[in-house]
Design goal:
Growth Hormone, Chain: A; 424 residues; mainly alpha; 77% helix; 16 helices; globular; 2 domains
C-alpha cells in the first residue's frame, strides 16, 4: 500500500494520461468560466441594470445548473461522458460569443441560463470521467489533483478577466471591433474591453473542446444503459448522503463568500480580498499533499476531521474581533475545504456503480448548488435581522448536522467510509 511518503510514485500512478488530460480540460474551462465572476456585474451595470437585476442575473445560472444536473447525469450514463463534455463546452463557446449581441439586461437572462446548462454538463461529465479512470487505490490522489484544477482556475480566471476588460493593451483591438461592428456589446460598455474578453473566453472554451474531442470514452462498454427516465432514475440514492453533507458544507461556503467581505470591512480590513488569497493558498497546499493520505487511510478518518475544521472556522468567525482572527479563519477554511472536497468526492465514487456513476456525480454536485443558493438566502436574512455572528453560528450548526449525518451513515453501514480505500 502506498504511504504518504512516496509522493512521486503516487502522483505518477494517479496522473495517468487521460486523468491529466481531463484535469487540464477542467482547468481550462474553469479559467474561462470564471472570467465572468468579477466582470459581469460591470457589464450588466453598463447596459443599464440595477443592483437587484445584477443579483438576479448572477445567481440564476446556479439555479439553472441545479435544474439541469439530474438530466445531465442521466445522459452521461446513457450516452457516455465524452459527448456530454464536448456539447457542454460547445454551449459555453456559443454562450460567450452571444454576449456580444446583448444590448440590455433582459438580453443577458437567456445567456445566464445557457451558462448554467454548460456548467452542469461540463462538471458532471468531467467528474464522472475522472471517477471512471482513477485507479481505486489512487482515487483520492487523482481526485485531489482534479480538484486542484478548480482552485488554480479560481486564481487565474477572475484575475485574467478583470485584467482584459481594464487593460489599455486591448483598447485598440476592442475599439476596432466595436467601431467596425457597432452591434457588438463593447459599443455600449464604455471603456471596458468586454468584446475582447468574450472572444478570449470563447477561444479558451474552444481549446478545451478540442482537448475533449481527443479523449477516449471512459464509460465501460459492458455497462447497461438506463431506460426511459422516471423521477427516481434522475437521482442516485447511493450518493444522497455525500450530497447532503456536501450541501451542509456549501451552506457555510455561501456565508464565507457572500458576507465575509462585509464583516471584514466592519472589523477594519481595508482589502478583504486578501482573506481569499489566504484561503486559496491553503486549498492549493492541501490538494497538493492530501491525496496519498486519502488513499492510505479510511475515507471517514480523513473526512470527519476536515468537517470539524470547517466547524471550527465558523466558530472562529463568530468570536473574531481582529483582522488576525479573520486570517486564522480564512486559513482554517482553506485547510478544511482543501481536504473535504476531494475526499468526500472519493467517498461518493466509492459508493456508486459504473452504470449510475453519472447520476451519482450529478447528485453529489447538486448538494453544492443547493447549499450555496439556500445558504446565501438564509444567512442573508439572519445577517439582516440579527447580525453576522448569529449567521455564522447558524452555519456552524448546519455543518455540525452534516457531520452527524456522515458519522451516522458511517457507523450504520460500514463500507467505503470505514474500510481502507483499496478495498472500496
Amino acid at each position: 500500500m502506498t504511504t504518504p511518503g512516496d509522493g512521486q510514485g503516487s502522483a505518477a500512478r494517479a496522473l495517468t494520461g487521460p486523468i491529466l488530460n481531463i484535469t487540464l480540460i477542467n482547468l481550462v474551462f474553469f479559467s474561462g468560466y470564471l472570467f465572468f465572476f468579477p466582470t459581469l456585474p460591470f457589464f450588466i451595470d453598463e447596459l443599464g441594470g440595477r443592483e437587484s437585476e445584477i443579483g438576479l442575473l448572477i445567481g440564476i445560472s446556479s439555479l439553472t445548473s441545479l435544474a439541469c444536473r439530474p438530466f445531465v447525469g442521466y445522459f452521461v450514463d446513457r450516452n457516455g461522458r465524452k459527448p456530454v463534455l464536448v456539447i457542454g463546452l460547445f454551449i459555453f463557446i456559443i454562450n460567450c460569443l452571444l454576449h456580444n449581441f446583448a444590448t440590455s439586461p433582459a438580453a443577458v437572462l437567456p445567456l445566464r441560463l445557457l451558462t448554467g446548462a454548460s456548467l452542469a454538463a461540463v462538471i458532471t461529465a468531467a467528474t464522472t470521467f475522472i471517477a471512471d479512470m482513477a485507479p481505486p487505490d489512487k482515487r483520492g490522489s487523482a481526485l485531489s489533483y482534479f480538484a486542484l484544477s478548480n482552485a488554480v482556475g479560481f486564481a487565474i480566471g477572475p484575475a485574467l478577466g478583470g485584467f482584459i476588460i481594464n487593460s489599455s493593451i486591448f483598447d485598440g483591438f476592442d475599439s476596432a471591433l466595436t467601431g467596425r461592428f457597432d452591434w457588438l456589446s463593447g459599443a455600449q460598455t464604455g471603456d471596458f474591453n468586454f468584446t475582447t474578453m468574450f472572444l478570449v473566453a470563447a477561444l479558451i472554451g474552444l481549446i478545451g473542446m478540442i482537448m475533449a474531442m481527443l479523449l477516449p470514452e471512459s464509460r465501460p462498454d459492458s455497462t447497461p444503459k438506463p431506460g426511459r427516465p422516471g423521477i427516481r432514475d434522475l437521482v442516485a440514492r447511493e450518493a444522497a448522503i455525500p450530497g447532503l453533507v456536501n450541501f451542509a458544507v456549501a451552506f457555510s461556503f455561501a456565508g464565507m463568500v457572500t458576507f465575509m467581505p462585509l464583516f471584514a470591512r466592519d472589523i477594519g480590513l481595508e482589502n478583504p480580498g486578501n482573506l481569499f488569497i489566504a484561503y486559496a493558498a491553503f486549498v492549493i497546499l492541501m490538494r497538493f499533499t492530501v491525496g496519498p493520505f486519502i488513499d492510505r487511510f479510511s475515507r471517514a478518518t480523513v473526512i470527519a476531521p476536515s468537517i470539524v475544521v470547517l466547524i471550527a472556522t465558523m466558530l472562529v468567525v463568530v468570536i473574531a474581533d481582529s483582522v488576525f482572527m479573520l486570517f486564522v479563519a480564512a486559513s482554517l477554511w482553506g485547510i478544511g475545504a482543501g481536504v473535504f472536497q476531494p475526499s468526500m468526492m472519493a467517498y461518493a465514487v466509492d459508493r456508486s456503480r459504473p452504470e449510475t456513476r453519472g447520476r451519482a456525480m450529478s447528485t453529489f454536485t447538486m448538494g453544492m448548488d443547493l447549499g450555496i443558493s439556500i445558504g446565501s438566502l438564509s444567512l442573508g436574512l439572519v445577517v439582516e435581522a440579527a447580525g453576522f455572528q448569529p449567521a455564522y453560528s447558524m452555519a456552524a450548526i448546519v455543518i455540525a448536522a452534516g457531520l452527524a449525518l456522515f458519522l451516522w451513515s458511517w457507523f450504520r453501514q460500514p463500507g467505503p467510509a470505514a474500510a481502507p480505500s483499496t478495498a472500496a
